[in-house]
Amino acid sequence: MSAPPSPAPAQARSRRSLGARAWAVLAVPALVVILSLLLGAVVILGSELIVTGRKFDPWLWFTAYAALVQGAYGSTDAVIQTLVYSTPLVFGGLAVAFGFKAGLFNIGAQGQFLVGALGAVIVGVALADAPAPIAIVAATIAGIVAGGIWGFVPGFLKAVSGAHEVVSTIMLNYVAVQLLAALVSGPLKVPKSPSPVTYDVGNAAFPIVIGATGHIGIILAIVAAGFVWWLLFRTTWGFEIRSVGANPDAARYAGMRPKLLIVATMTFSGALAGLAGTSVLLGVSHSMTSSFGTTVGFDSIAVALLARSNPLGVLPAAVLFGSMRAGAGLMQINAGIPVELVDVLQATILLFLVASPVLRRLLRLRNVEAGITTAAPSPGLGAGTAP
Amino acid sequence: MTDETGPSLAPALEMRGITKRYPGVVANDGINLQVRPGEIHALLGENGAGKTTLMNVLYGLATPDEGEILLDGKVVTISGPSDAIARGINMVHQHFMLVPVLTVAENILLGDETMANRIFLDRREAHRRIIELGRRFGFEIDPEAKVGSLSVGWQQRVEILKALYRNARILVLDEPTAVLTPQETDEIFGVLRRLAAEGHSIVFISHKLYEVLEIADRITVIRRGRVVGERLPSATDEDDLAALMVGREVQLTVDRGESHPAGVVLEVAGLEVRDDRGQPAVRGVDLEVRAGEIFGIAGVAGNGQDELVEAIVGLRKPAAGSVRLAGKDVTGHSPRMMNEDAVAYVPADRHRFGLILSFPLADNLVLTSYYRSPYARGIVRDPRAIQRDAVTSIERYDIRTPSATVRASTLSGGNQQKAVVAREFDRDLKLLVLDQPTRGLDVGSIEFIHHQVIAKRDAGTAVLLVSAELDEVLEMSDRIGVMFEGRIVAVVDGRTADKNAVGLLMATGGEERPPVPAATA
Predict the structure, then answer these.
(1) Burial class (CB within 10 angstroms; exposed 0-12, middle 13-18, buried 19+) of A160
(2) Closest-CA distance of chain B to residue A241, Å
(3) Cβ B26–A12 below 8 Å, yes or no?
(4) Nearest to B160 by CA among B184, B125, B124
(5) What's the rounded Cα separation, in Å, for the pair B458 and B13?
(6) 3 state DSSP class of A364
(7) May I ask the CATH class of domain B254-342+428-521?
(8) Deepest in the core among A224, A291, A307, B519, taking most CB within 10 A?
(9) How far apart are the CA of B44 and the nearest CA of chain A, in angstroms?
(10) Cβ distance B206 to B212 under 8 Å?
(11) Would you tell me which residues 222-241 of chain A have a C-beta closer than 8 angstroms to some C-beta of chain B?
């Protein structure tokens, strides 16, 4: 529209108050979480009807959610434990979000997570008796590099042959699982141990800085979120990455090199996911069994989506998911609801996010940002050149 | 003033007080439009004036907030395109809605099949009707020809036939001549006149003034969603219409002044380039552009112009031949290297290449210089410098935007192109490559961009201008190369070139006809 008579949407946008802008960014994620909790309540009530032999309690869902909150935030130790659960999700969420910004869907965070942990345990065990600072730094770098290699491969394949990263990263997830099983039950196994387990990383373990379990990875995660934000929105590399994600043709026209950027982005994304694995291994488990590996890599995708690919949004999103994991135990004890309810909640969050265009239409949310952004830059928290 | 014109019949179509609001914008504000039987009624307005919205309302694609539509004096509600077609309203879109691999007959039958019985098409009957319809309106068409093998002008005729086959009484043509050569335009005008003579009503949407004056029986001008005037072609002229359309006096023809060509800047020799499918698109082009001159390339879209330009600016690797810039061999150099050699490029598709629509305007203004001082120190960007220069550019190039931080997608087409021009023009240049710099823009923006190009030429920049708009090439260029099937078939003097002769070269490559008289090297 050339100079329309009344304020165009463009003008309306810039004149909107801070509150309105916050609403625009937060409305969909908040709504999605609330809807998921409601659906979770329905699932709880439904399960009561199916599982007979217990008295029907119409408030069981409330008991369950109260226990979930209490489990996650009921004491100082609980809060620290929540942060410990959230830490790998921050790294993983950053990894996936970073890929999204370049228009890449890194489904391989899980594989990069495992390989990163593997790198950390190999070097950590080797340096278990070395001075702590050296051991920690070396093991951490090993985890980052290993994850980076696992990200580089699909990036390279995409740049050279156009192989889609979704396919190649899924494949590499399987390779990572098998590689881990082979190494942990083979060369890395503690000799004569009845079960496949590696040695302890000893001095390479992350130091505890808060409470009984709060390792330094928590601080590292917060720093990483700030760093990724800075990289994306305050550096020329970040600008190139976001340009390639938003419009590869225009990026090429502008003299950027999309193929090189794809490789670099996948490598960096893999390194962040590797750091997620490293933080669990050096911060929590200190050794590796063949069953190492949670669903952190996959949960990271949900975290990144809920955060709308914004590095700073990854922090609250990761803490939300971490809280559910941390509180699930008490929920099972107090309300008799299996911890798997948390999986249900995460899954419904993901589904509602995917369906957010429908939500927006149904609820007539006009000036609200879409629930899922992959390549497009997020306004508000990170508008590229906003002073 | 309009009541005495034309036959005094009830309007075939009347739109009364149509108002359509979108959030923040009134796209149509109480628009009245009357189209009589047998009338060619032109709807003239700039991009974004509300023409398309009005036609979407007519075609049932948008529901008006206020107002009513009358067909033959009766109020109707049009629920969607199929309802519109059933009522005899048909639309020929600017981008044709044809299936290239199907035949003419199959395309025409698509969606309204003439059946021999419940299962099989009655091809024979369909063919008979198509040939008969074509003859009635002055052209013969082979119903068995594949649409993909037809020229754009003939494809348009297929679109019109499709409408007639469905017994259209009211035909809406959206910018029908945008893709046609002058000869094709004349031919299509002939078809439209015959249609009107048979009693069909035609709504002709355009922003080309001379065309509207030539073809229309009546002209309705809309601006900013309102009807600002109704004119008879006999009682108006281009300046009057332009002023109505833009809302101020507009200088229609470019005052290009004298050019002072100096040394050769761009030298292209034996250049061969393949298209995306690996087919030869440029087949041996030689050309020279000197400092301080505008070299125009005329040609029907798709004759290798885009590939030629992309090879020159480094986006496409040439298969053979060389590109030299001020004596230096730059064949196969990357876009970044060309940019650093003071070559600027305004791409034909600003949405695909020129801008990142989801990025703020300020970021788009530094899209090709983001890594340089003062916009970055090392790898750290300087948002303040970017913002400051954005504000300056917005002012200097008259980009209408609420701020530098809005997304480029929220700007109008004209302002988006001004942003591209601001970015590419705002430094000393050796070579400026323009591919369709004013496509789809309104009169005001075209005027502005032409002035900027002339200013660059006068500053000693070599300008290569590609346009499918023959008038633009003729108005702007010092020399004109006519491109046909990947070759430059003639180079003519821009000031003495004859429009019809160039048009003929564009259409035929000059193989069957004598060459253009003014051809010089």
Answers:
(1) exposed
(2) 12
(3) no
(4) B184
(5) 51
(6) coil
(7) alpha beta
(8) A307
(9) 15
(10) yes
(11) 234-237, 239
Can you tell me the distance from the alpha carbon of B223 to that of B54, in angstroms, rounded to the nearest whole number? Answer: 12
Residue of A nearest to B442 (CA): A2
Specify the pTM.
0.77
- Would you identify the CATH topology of the domain A15-362? ABC transporter involved in vitamin B12 uptake, BtuC (1.10.3470)
Minimal Cα distance from B50: which residue of A? Answer: A1
Looking at the complex, report in whole angstroms how far the Cα of residue B37 sits from the nearest Cα belonging to chain A: 32
- Does B362 contact A7 at a Cβ distance shorter than 8 Å? no
pLDDT tens, position by position, B361-392: 999 999 999 999 899 999 999 999 999 999 99
Torsions phi, psi for B397 (to 5 deg): -105, 15
Mean pLDDT score of chain A: 86
Kindly report the CATH class assigned to B1-88+170-250: alpha beta
Antiparallel, parallel or unpaired: β A214-215 and B380-381: unpaired
Cα distance from A161 to chain B (closest Cα, Å)?
17
| Contact present, B516 and B489 (Cβ < 8 Å) | no
- pLDDT of A8 > 80? The answer is no
Q: Which residue has the tokens 């009984």?
A: A212
Summarised one tens digit per residue, pLDDT across range B393-443 is 999 998 888 889 999 988 878 889 999 999 999 889 999 999 999 887 777
CA distance A173 to A112: 8
Residue A143 carries which DSSP code?
A: H
Contact assessment for residue B222 and residue B49, using Cβ atoms and an 8 Å cutoff: yes
What average pLDDT does the segment A57-86 reach?
Answer: 91
Round to whole Å and give the CA distance between A279 and A93.
14
Look at residues A249, A260, A239 and name the one whose alpha carbon lies nearest to residue A159: A260
- B1-88+170-250 and B254-342+428-521 share one fold: yes
Beta partners for B202? B40, B171
A247: chain B residues, CB-CB within 8 Å: 352, 355-358
**Cα separation of B32 and A154, whole Å?**
60
Q: Which percentage of chain A shows pLDDT scores above 90?
A: 63
Distance CA A189, CA A205 (A): 19
Minimum-distance CB partner of B383 among A4, A13, A385: A385
List the one residue out of B227, B229, B86 whose CA is nearest residue B170.
Answer: B86
- Reported for B311-319, long-range contacts at CB under 8 A and 24+ positions apart, including other chains, are B311/B271, B311/B273, B311/B282, B312/B266, B312/B268, B312/B433, B312/B464, B313/B338, B313/B343, B313/B345, B313/B433, B314/B338, B315/A252, B315/A253, B316/B273, B318/B271, B318/B272, B318/B273, B318/B282, B319/B272, B319/B273, B319/B274, B319/B280
Are B430 and B461 in contact by the 8 Å Cβ rule? The answer is yes
Rounding to the nearest 10 degrees, give the CA dihedral for residues A305, A308, A311, A313: -100
To the nearest whole Å, the CA of B107 is away from the closest chain A CA by: 33
Residue ranges covered by each domain of chain B: 1-88+170-250, 96-168, 254-342+428-521, 359-426
Contact B315 A252 (CB under 8 A): yes
**pLDDT tens column, B329-354:** 999 999 999 999 999 999 988 888 99
Chosen for mutation from A6, A239, A368 (greatest number of chain B CBs closer than 10 Å) is A239
Rounded-to-integer distance, Cα A31 and Cα A37, Å: 10
A384 φ/ψ angles, rounded to the nearest 5 degrees: -40, -55
Task: Identify the CA nearest to A313 among candidates A240, A244, A371, A387.
Answer: A371
> How many interchain CB pairs under 8 A, A with B?
146
Within an 8 Å CB–CB cutoff, is residue A354 touching chain B? no
pLDDT score at A337: 85
Residues of chain B found within 8 Å of residue A385, distances taken between Cβ atoms: 360, 362-363, 381, 383, 386-387, 390, 404-405
Q: Of B355, B360, B384, which has the smallest distance from its Cβ to A250's Cβ?
A: B355
Q: What is the ipTM of this complex?
A: 0.80
